[in-house]
């Protein structure tokens, strides 16, 4: 079954767990927590788009999908032109000053290879980043929407 | 879905080292360290004064932000799949120094830190910030004056069916003043509203632009019905036995001479009384290492009580480490989790050398 890394924006409480766990694993985090408009927390990281514009924009074919459909960079092929950063709607890209290649969220490919889940989703206390199969993700979304509709109609 | 503290390994991959680590405090830092350490094969025993693990994630942060079950199930995975031993309702003290702190209501067993230090190969202190400092103004010992943490914690214990409703600070149909503008202040104010308080004032000495919780959180609270009064400082709490009002003075902001946030300066002659039945102060919690730690050689900051550590998370006692809010003071869940993971890694390195 297809697994996705899903950011449930409205559940984010701004606790920084995603960014901090990522920083622990990779020293330079690939997901960042921003606070905008007076403090609304927004985690910024790769959504591993199904029709990823970065893959299409890359002139060197350095961006590709792994067997599970997550977007990775081949640092050998990457020339650091930032075309992927131009087209990415989610600010997922960053440039490694030493290798001069793009680095980004890999959805913790090494953990996944061992049958484990990405760090951010494993530890997000607010259930705002989840790693799940698509059936469960959409089930979860519908449930959250149903709860929201119920509470607004009951004026809770 | 559950929080997975041992996210870096599967239970069947672990090779036991035979080393034993005691983690004191089952909040975000303690549980994250525990998850790391069990993946490295060490046996971990956790001590916590509360009846459930999770710390402030379970006992202070409102359930609509963090679902308690999400955290508790995560702790259960540690217990069932990684054989972590949870010693709950257990308070750790050093040098026989037993003082009452917030969250102590459930303690039915006291263990000496010296014994733990002798018995385990390494010890992590991750006991957090269970002390709401008072304001230092007249009248603050009146009935009805309470710290935000104590107020939230009592509500959560009722919500979790741990204590009967009589145990909560019941503000329903009453007027409440919350002093402060950080996350605890906003949480206390919105919880008071949820409990059915007639009016809830959020009082802050600076303006909404300087509020530590951020303009957005404050605006949301105002939308929910909180009455926001900025640029005021409390002078005294009035009442004969129970609070009846609070005297405030208006401030103006002055640009600081040496950088930093604008300084609130009271304007003489602008004092006024606000009729309230409860005063909740949320002016920054203080670190609470096991009482008496300094007497056994663990250095703490003299003013605030923060445990002092080096870059390897080590305290001044050889096999004792510390991480999380007990080191940094109030911060964010994520920073405590990261500190717990890094302390776990530091302890693992230390254990590989002994």
Tell me what the structure shows:
The complex is a heterodimer of chains A (156) and B (354). Chain A has helices at residues 17-26, 53-57, 83-87, 109-113, 119-123, 134-153, and strands at residues 3-7, 32-36, 40-44, 63-65, 71-73, 94-95, 102-103, 129-133. In chain A, the strands form 4 sheets. In chain A, strands 1-8 form a two-stranded antiparallel sheet. In chain A, strands 2-3 form a two-stranded antiparallel sheet. Chain A has a two-stranded antiparallel sheet with strand order 4-5. Chain A has 2 domains: 1-44 and 107-156, Alpha-Beta Plaits; 46-104, Alpha-Beta Plaits. Chain A starts with a strand and ends with a helix. Chain A is an alpha+beta fold and 156 residues long. In chain A, a hairpin with a 6-residue loop joins strand 6 and strand 7. Helices cover 32% and strands 19% of the residues of chain A. Chain A is globular and about 55 Å long. Chain B has 354 residues and is an alpha/beta fold. Chain B folds into 2 domains: 11-130 and 286-353, FAD/NAD(P)-binding domain (3-Layer(bba) Sandwich), CATH 3.50.50.60; 145-281, FAD/NAD(P)-binding domain (3-Layer(bba) Sandwich), CATH 3.50.50. Chain B has helices spanning 28-39, 56-59, 68-81, 113-119, 148-159, 183-194, 215-224, 325-328, 333-353; strands at residues 20-24, 43-47, 85-87, 90-93, 109-112, 122-125, 145-147, 175-179, 199-204, 227-230, 232-238, 245-254, 263-266, 272-275, 278-281, 320-322. In chain B, helix 6 links the parallel strand 8 (175-179) and strand 9. In chain B, helix 5 (148-159) packs across helix 6 (183-194) and helix 6 (183-194) runs parallel beside helix 7.
């Amino acid at each position: 079954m297809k697994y996705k890394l899903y950011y449930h924006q409205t559940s984010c409480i701004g606790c920084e767990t995603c960014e901090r766990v990522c920083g622990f694993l990779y020293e330079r985090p690939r997901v960042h927590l921003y606070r905008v408009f007076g403090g609304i927390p927004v985690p910024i990281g790769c959504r591993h788009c199904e029709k990823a514009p970065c893959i299409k924009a890359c002139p060197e074919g350095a961006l590709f999908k792994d067997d599970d459909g997550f977007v990775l960079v081949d640092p050998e092929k990457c020339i650091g032109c930032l075309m992927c950063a131009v087209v990415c709607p989610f600010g997922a890209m960053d440039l490694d000053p030493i290798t001069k290649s793009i680095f980004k969220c890999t959805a913790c490919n090494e953990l996944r290879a061992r049958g484990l889940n990405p760090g951010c989703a494993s530890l997000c206390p607010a259930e705002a980043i989840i790693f799940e199969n698509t059936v469960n993700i959409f089930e979860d979304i519908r449930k959250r929407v149903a709860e929201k509709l119920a509470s607004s109609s009951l004026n809770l | 879905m559950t929080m997975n503290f041992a996210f870096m390994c599967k239970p069947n991959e672990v090779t036991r080292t035979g080393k034993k680590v005691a983690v004191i405090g089952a909040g975000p830092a303690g549980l994250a360290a525990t998850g790391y350490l069990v993946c490295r094969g060490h046996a971990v025993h956790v001590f916590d004064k509360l009846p459930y693990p999770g710390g402030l994630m379970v006992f202070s942060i409102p359930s609509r932000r963090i679902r308690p079950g999400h955290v508790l199930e995560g702790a259960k995975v540690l217990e069932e799949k990684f054989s972590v031993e949870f010693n709950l309702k257990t308070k750790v003290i050093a040098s026989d120094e037993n003082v009452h702190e917030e969250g102590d209501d459930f303690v039915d067993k006291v263990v000496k830190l010296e014994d733990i230090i002798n018995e385990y190969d390494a010890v992590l202190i991750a006991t957090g910030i269970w002390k709401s400092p008072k304001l230092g103004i007249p009248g603050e010992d009146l009935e009805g004056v309470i710290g935000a943490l104590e107020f939230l914690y009592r509500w959560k214990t009722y919500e979790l069916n741990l204590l009967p409703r009589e145990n909560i600070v019941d503000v329903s149909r009453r007027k409440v003043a919350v002093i402060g503008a950080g996350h605890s202040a906003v949480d206390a104010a919105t919880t008071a509203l949820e409990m059915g308080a007639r009016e809830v004032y959020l009082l802050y000495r600076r303006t909404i632009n300087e509020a530590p919780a951020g303009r957005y959180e404050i605006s949301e609270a105002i939308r929910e019905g909180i009455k926001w009064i900025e640029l005021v400082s409390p002078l005294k709490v009035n009442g004969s036995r129970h609070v009846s009002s609070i005297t405030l003075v208006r401030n103006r902001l002055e640009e600081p001479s040496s950088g930093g946030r604008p300084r609130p300066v009271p304007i003489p002659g602008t004092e006024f009384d606000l009729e309230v039945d409860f005063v909740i102060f949320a002016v920054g919690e203080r670190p609470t290492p096991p009482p008496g730690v300094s007497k056994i050689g663990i250095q703490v900051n003299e003013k605030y009580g923060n445990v002092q550590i080096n870059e390897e998370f080590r305290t001044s006692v050889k096999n004792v480490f510390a991480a999380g809010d007990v080191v940094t003071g109030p911060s964010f869940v994520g920073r405590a989790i990261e500190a717990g993971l890094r302390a776990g890694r530091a302890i693992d390195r230390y254990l590989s050398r002994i």
